[in-house]
Write a structure and sequence with these properties.
The complex is a heterodimer. By secondary structure, chain A is an alpha/beta fold. In chain A, 43% of the residues lie in helices and 18% in strands. Chain A has two domains: 10-157 and 303-377, Response regulator (Rossmann fold, 3-Layer(aba) Sandwich); 159-290 and 378-390, Rossmann fold (3-Layer(aba) Sandwich), CATH 3.40.50.2300. In chain A, the strands form four sheets. In chain A, strands 1-3-2-4-5-6 form a six-stranded mixed β-sheet, sandwiched between helices. In chain A, helix 8 (241-251) links the parallel strand 9 (232-236) and strand 10. In chain A, helix 2 packs parallel to helix 11, helix 3 packs parallel to helix 4 and helix 8 (241-251) runs parallel beside helix 9. The N and C termini of chain A lie far apart (74 Å). In chain A, 56% of the residues are buried. Helices cover 69% and strands 6% of the residues of chain B. In chain B, helix 1 runs antiparallel to helix 10. The longest helix of chain B has 31 residues, at 2-32. The termini of chain B are far apart. Classes of the chains: A alpha/beta, B mainly alpha. Chains A and B meet through helix 1, helix 2, strand 8, helix 7 and helix 8 of A and helix 1, helix 4, strand 3 and helix 10 of B.
Chain lengths: 392, 295
């Protein structure tokens, strides 16, 4: 009797496990069907599962969409592009594994991603040693500072986000600030940048706190900030933490303006924070307000086009994070057009690329700058009636 | 002072959740000597089911259904533990629960996706704005009152169940002496499944309560489960009142510790584990353990 049950149980367990395993791991998107020529293989590592899936999924979607579009138009001089996309679940060790796989594949011409700072830093030196161009989609300036030959990134460095926010703070004559950050790589890097730049700008950080990504109550930290009575509160983190911070600020009846980072630049923040999201001001890539960008802006065409294509393909608005993958993918394609599958030449092409009009901004790469952007890549955005509004 | 009372309020509210999870650990441990690492996932299942349902129906329907869903998952995990119980060592059963937790989380991610889902406040002004009032310099949200009230109700209910009902007494008997219990005609297997169902139901209640006003997410179980585990061990595994006291204490300490650690408040999470280590070294049976007679 029990034996039979046990067998059944194990059978079910095995089946469920198999299902689970089948759904994880490598997802290859073969976008090269029906084209005879040998494809260019572009590797990709995104956090398409795990806590940071809301960032990684739009990136993977974008890269897949672009590869498909490119191949439908006949590829690069007749050669199609094949995207080899891996999921790192936001974990450095899984990114390392994916990177090893990609490095072992002789056909891969470049890697785009990872989504997050931690995984990007974890594989940066591997790519340099293997002479593999890596175009990261993560925020931290540490990925390209100090500059290493093969590592680039498209996401606007947090350095510029802090500068953009400081411009606003100075304009509003705010002198004291309470700062709270997520203890993850994104939050701590933002905190470092903030402390470095704000001091020089004469803004005083009167309270400094942090929280863990999985924390569900930030009232204790905010209570301390409240006691320090700063003129504004800055929260630097990725969802869902900042949404809870916004709600806790409301609960504690704190009246100061709330400033946040580009880490909240997706729908999830508005959805989770609800009414508490109203009036929050943050620097963001221009994509989320693409249609509000003035007509004279050289980026407008690219922004509006990408926003419309993404909406059409996935039924969701394009966000900041997908934009990083757009730029990374197009930079690689741009280099491939000039030089073909030679990694060394791809690297050199990207490094010398000027005035590349991307979704994140206008890139001017050089031997000393592998991000190629400045603070103008950010726009200040606020939330009104649950919608993003460009702050003028 | 204002700061202190505010910190105390959020500490107690968080601690209550740890306490409920800790009771779940203790119930299963008492019945099987197994530490059920899927306890955190019961919390997640409750929260996620409620979150999904609340998009369509009211809390009065969503809450009980979420608890039922939690109980169902609990029963399945219970069966998985029960079937090899006689042959397997406790360690392999514990590992089995670790596997079950990964499986539950993985399946939840498959079905519900990765994104956090908003869960409205039980009785807020709007779905995401709570009623608040001021007391002794602290701002208290009505949701926090709900958390404490639900915890107290659960504690009383569990206590009465174990003390006054036949089934509850039978479960205690199984925990004390399984062979003896079997001899007097108690179905030990049924009691074990029941303990899993109860623990999972409690976990689900904790899940719905903690996520209200915040969010539910497939990955939320691990952190809460770990804190509840800390509380259960601190209070002495199998010791309900100890677990409850330790849970609340843990929440308060975590909250108050931000006063001591300047600007690195994320380390408050480590507090739980430091306390756990110290207590395990000094009082391995838990903070409320009575002195054992020296043999």
């Amino acid at each position: 009797m029990w034996g039979k049950h046990r067998l059944l149980m194990f059978g079910i367990l095995a089946a469920l496990l198999a299902l689970l395993v089948a759904s994880c791991g490598q997802k290859t998107t073969d976008t090269s069907e029906g084209v005879a020529q040998e494809p260019y293989v572009i590797g990709a590592i995104f956090s398409s599962t795990g806590d940071n899936a809301p960032l990684g999924v739009p990136e993977r979607n974008t890269a897949e969409m672009l590869a498909k579009q490119l191949n439908e138009k006949g590829g690069i001089d007749g050669r199609p592009v094949k995207l080899l996309a891996y999921d790192d679940a936001g974990k450095p060790e899984q990114a390392v594994q994916a990177c090893q796989d990609l490095l072992a594949n002789k056909e891969v011409v470049a890697i785009i991603g990872p989504t997050l700072t931690g995984p990007s830093l974890a594989i940066a030196s591997m790519c340099n040693t293997a002479k593999m161009p890596l175009i990261s989609c993560a925020a931290s300036v540490k990925i390209v500072q100090p500059v290493t030959p093969y590592v680039f990134k498209t996401a606007q460095s947090d350095h510029f986000a802090v500068q953009k926010l400081l411009d606003y703070i100075k304009a509003k004559k705010i002198k004291t600030v309470g700062f709270i950050n997520d203890a993850n790589a994104f939050g701590s890097s933002g905190r470092e940048e903030w402390l470095k730049i704000s001091k020089a700008a004469g803004v005083n950080t009167v309270a400094l706190e942090s929280f863990n990504s999985s924390d569900t109550d930030m009232t204790p930290q905010l209570t301390k900030i409240k006691a320090a009575n700063p003129q504004a509160i800055i929260c630097w983190g990725t969802n869902p933490g900042p949404a809870i911070v916004a709600k806790n600020i409301r609960r504690l009846a704190m009246k100061q303006p709330v400033l946040m980072s580009h880490g909240i630049s997706n729908q999830e923040f508005i959805k989770l924070a609800g009414a508490a999201a109203e009036g929050v001001i943050f620097p963001s890539g221009k994509i989320i307000v693409a249609n509000q960008i003035p007509a004279g802006d050289p980026q407008r065409k690219v922004l509006v086009e990408y926003a419309a294509q993404y909406q059409k393909a996935f039924g969701k608005p394009a966000i900041h994070f997908g934009a990083h993958a757009w730029d990374a993918f197009q930079l690689v394609v741009d280099a491939l057009k000039k030089s073909g599958a030679d990694r060394e030449k791809i690297r050199a092409n990207i490094e010398s690329r000027k005035k590349f009009i991307g979704v994140d901004g206008i890139f001017n790469f050089s031997a000393s700058d592998h991000n190629g952007l400045d603070k103008n890549a950010f726009a200040l955005v606020t939330i009104k009636n649950g919608k993003w509004v460009l702050l003028k | 002072m204002e700061q202190f009372s505010q910190l105390l309020v959020s500490g107690i509210a968080n601690g209550c959740i740890y306490a409920i999870v800790a009771i779940g650990f203790s119930i299963i441990y008492a019945g099987t000597q197994v530490i059920n690492f899927a306890q955190g996932e019961f919390v997640m299942v409750g929260a996620m089911v409620a979150a999904v349902l609340l998009a369509k129906v009211s809390l009065l329907i969503a809450f009980p259904v979420a608890i039922l869903a939690g109980c169902l998952v609990g029963a399945v995990v219970g069966l998985c533990v029960l079937i090899p119980l006689k042959r397997a060592s406790v360690v392999s059963l514990v590992i089995l629960t670790v596997g079950a937790s990964l499986l539950i989380r993985g399946l939840a991610q498959l079905f519900w996706g990765e994104e956090g889902r908003m869960v409205p406040y039980f009785t807020g002004v709007t779905a995401n704005e709570d009623n608040i009032f001021h007391f002794a310099g602290a701002v208290i949200g009505v949701q926090q009152i709900w958390v404490v009230a639900i915890t107290i109700a659960l504690v009383i209910a569990t206590h009465c169940f174990f003390k006054y009902t036949l089934t509850g007494r039978a479960m205690r008997a199984c925990a004390l002496n399984p062979t003896g219990a079997r001899l007097v005609g108690i179905n030990v297997h049924r009691m074990i499944i029941l303990s899993f169902i109860m623990a999972a139901g409690l976990g689900a209640v904790a899940g719905v309560t903690v996520s209200a006003g915040l969010y539910a997410r497939c990955t939320m179980g691990a952190a809460l489960g770990l804190k509840g585990f800390c509380a259960a061990v601190l209070g002495g595994l199998g010791n309900y009142s100890g677990g409850i006291a330790a849970g609340v204490l843990l929440g308060v300490v975590e909250s108050l510790i931000v006063l001591i650690i300047p600007s690195m408040s994320d380390y408050s999470d480590a507090a739980a584990f430091v306390i756990l280590l110290v207590v395990l070294l000094l009082k391995p049976d838990g903070i409320l353990a009575r002195k054992k007679a020296v043999a």
